[in-house]
Design brief:
The complex is a heterodimer of chains A (about 280) and B (about 475). Chain A has 9 helices and 16 strands. Chain A is an alpha/beta fold. Chain A is globular and about 60 Å long. Chain B is about 30% helix and about 15% strand. Chain B has helices spanning about 20, 35-40, 50-55, 60-70, 75-85, 90-95, 115-130, 155-165, 180-185, 195-205, 220-225, 260-265, 295-305, 325-335, 405, 440, 445-465, and strands at about 145-150, 170, 210, 235, 240-245, 255-260, 285-290, 310-315, 340, 345-350, 355-370, 375-380, 385, 390-395, 400, 435. In chain B, the strands form 4 sheets. A 5-stranded parallel sheet of chain B has the order 3-2-1-4-16. Chain B has a 5-stranded parallel sheet with strand order 6-14-7-8-9. In chain B, strands 10, 11, 12 and 13 form a 4-stranded antiparallel sheet that branches. In chain B, helix 14 links the parallel strand 8 (about 310-315) and strand 9. The longest helix of chain B is centred in the C-terminal third of the chain and has 20 residues, at about 445-465. The radius of gyration of chain B is 23 Å and the shape is globular. Classes of the chains: A alpha/beta (about 280), B alpha/beta (about 475). The interface between A and B is large, with 44 and 42 residues.
Chain lengths: ~280, ~475
Amino acid sequence: MHRILSKDILAPDVARFWIEGAHIARKRKPGQFVIVRTSEDGERIPLTIADVDKQRGAISIIVQGVGKSTKQLNALNVGDAILDVAGPLGRGTEIHPNARVCCIGGGIGTAVVYPIACGAKALHGQVVAIVGGRTKDFVILEKELRAVVDRVIVTTDDGSAGAKGLVTDALRGLLAEGATFDEVVAVGPLPMMKAVVALTKPLGIKTTVSLNPLMVDGTGMCGGCRVSVGGEQKFVCVDGPEFNGHLVDFDELGARLRAYREQEAESLRLYNERVACQAISN
Amino acid sequence: MAKKITQKTKNAMPLQDAVARAHNFEEVALGYPVDLAVLEAQRCIQCKNYPCVSGCPVEIDIPKFIQEVAERNFEGAFKTLMDRNVLPAICGRVCPQEEQCEVKCTLGVKFEPVAIGRIERFVADYASLLKFADDTPPAPPTGHKVAVVGSGPAGLTVAADLAKMGHGVTIFEALHKAGGVLVYGIPEFRLPKAIVAGEIEALKRIGVEIKTNHVIGQIFTVDELFTELGFEAVFIATGAGLPTFPKIPGINLIGVYSANEYLTRSNLMKAYLFPVSDTPTIRGKNVAVIGGGNTAMDAVRTALRLGADNAYLVYRRTRREMPARREEVEHAEEEGVQIMMLAAPTAILADEHSRVRAMRCIRMELGEPDSSGRRSPVPQKGSEFDIEVDTVVFAIGQGANPLIRNTTPDLPVNKWGNILADDATGATQKPGVFAGGDIVTGGATVISAMGAGRKAARAIDRYLKNPSADGYSPTDV
């Protein structure tokens, strides 16, 4: 059991938790994830480790409530415990010293990009972060990034914060200004990552993406998280989660993510009904 | 010895009705009632040279426990079993007895052998019903500490044996539940999870500590188990956990699974109870499972129970070459599984939503024997045909999981990534590190993994007392 030490709301339906996990905190490298489970019949949910506090023996996870399992997780509060937390899983980010890196986070993807940006700074890199969201409310970790990296650019679809437009517009702007990068790290919705890759590939800028496919065990056993990278079969849980974005088959991954759409909707409907019933009976 | 044989055939195992059981996850085989178990035990002629024992990887005193059942001394029989085998309810259900103890039974020379496995199961179930405890006191604590990586059959056996010798044992399990393949792989209808949980509880009672959600290679490396946690020996039993897929088009379509994923979703995550449980699975109407082993049988029978109208088992050789237990193949057919022999998939075809709509197969013929001694399947040109399916499950073997290998560079492995370990002791070339089960042999059986655990326990005990006692012997590779 891993006790929840703190919780704050970063955006609508997006919560940041600090939870007990001394051994995980000690071993974790940026880019790695944990698998959590909140109840006996619950799903195993893969989540990036957003931050660690070795002194306190704690790890931070950021959860967007989308389906039943993530909403159920987000309903937990300080003092509650998470039944299972397994990790750190996956390979850590390969960060090169002194690299010029552009870290692009879209929505909840910023939670994945943040530790990578911190890691790059720790290795004396020059880091620019581009953080995108649908509106002002969906831009997360801006303050945290400003405290760490050299420059932060915010974009929103409606212009309610930062520049109106997409993260790719901001990247295009930076490149037009003459900025040069050894590497771009982009994490966010699949269409966003695909758009970034479409921009960087012709320019030959190394681009790393972090993938979040369907996953069960997270240790290489089930093969459910397989993706095609450069025509080869890779298991995200043990070979990733980060890959060369220029080689990832995003369309195939997108289709696989929709495998259980109907079941997920049904599960969420039943959950919402139950929550509504409880609210009435209270 | 001068016993007269009055019954030439085994007493049949009562089974759940085939039509009913194809639609539920309750246990298929119901077990012998008391009188039938005694009757079957009385078939044993108590021959002098008891060849059955040499067929048992954990060397149970088979004639003794059978005799005790024949005399209705069930508690005595249970103690005899527990003396050599801490998982009798599991072994009585999933061991391939027909290839091990029973194939060597003297009675079997002329008639059907004694149903040793069924009697073993009876004793274990009867004991748990009446709550007989194994009250043999464990040896006094030795102060030595051993880490076991993986809680499947090999890990559980080595842990039990070492704990009985008085050593401190901690099992590290990557998943949230202990049992390894016994809980994620073998379905409820063949091995109820409550049985596994019961036998694991018994291990905890003799002092074995189990840490779930601990992925060794990630949270601690093998070296850190020694240096940071103070273990003096490590036994690696991580199983064969990396699914393989053929290199054919369509392998990443929605509805294509490895048997591991299909079975893990259903067994460990209870997807058959969805939406009561939270993990979904595709409940295909027409399901093809590729393979001919026990895992393939488990997957195809699961497909029926998840509601398939047609559950096909597609195998590239013939029934004769199938590695699955014959009893399992028979049970599958009784339930309605349709076996397609001499066929192999060449492509999986998609609908417009990237979901499986059909599988293209090619007919095979058996050619010359290959290195395994089995006649190898040869594709017949121009014989392709399509079968309409919406779900495809591959049960065609497992590779070695890379997590330990990647983080323990001084632990030699073979070209398939399996750990090199001495056959007789489980010793690897890395001092203090032992290994056994599927991570060494590749996919095999529950009992052979237990046999490896048993041998390793003795070797680890010797090693703890004298670290230069056993070594890795390369001639065994």
